[in-house]
Amino acid sequence: MQVPFDLTSYVRVLKLASTPSWNEFSQIAKIAGAGIVLVGLLGFIIFIFMSFIPS
């Protein structure tokens, strides 16, 4: 492991990184929230479906 080389690559990445604008952040948050709600809804539908199937 080459520590100086690793540190320079980390510094390079941090220099390229920037904070997102509010519009970009809100769009990402909406998409992530919609994905979480969709997966939860799918799990709930499967739970309801499995509850009504007789054992």
TrEMBL record:
Gene: secE
Gene Ontology molecular function terms on file: protein transmembrane transporter activity
UniProt keywords, alphabetically: Cell membrane, Membrane, Protein transport, Translocation, Transmembrane, Transmembrane helix, Transport
Any single Gene Ontology cellular-component annotation: endomembrane system
Similarity remark: Belongs to the SecE/SEC61-gamma family.
Topology with respect to the bilayer: Single-pass membrane protein
Gene3D superfamilies attached to this UniProt entry: Preprotein translocase SecE subunit
Function: Essential subunit of the Sec protein translocation channel SecYEG. Clamps together the 2 halves of SecY. May contact the channel plug during translocation.
Source organism of the structure: Halorientalis brevis
Domain of life according to the entry: Archaea
GO BP annotations listed: intracellular protein transmembrane transport; protein secretion; protein targeting
Cellular localization per UniProt: Cell membrane; Endomembrane system
Protein's UniProt keywords contain Protein transport: yes
Assembly, per entry: Component of the Sec protein translocase complex. Heterotrimer consisting of SecY (alpha), SecG (beta) and SecE (gamma) subunits. The heterotrimers can form oligomers, although 1 heterotrimer is thought to be able to translocate proteins. Interacts with the ribosome. May interact with SecDF, and other proteins may be involved.
Spans through the membrane: 31-53
The keyword Transmembrane is annotated on this UniProt entry: yes
Listed name of the protein: Protein translocase subunit SecE
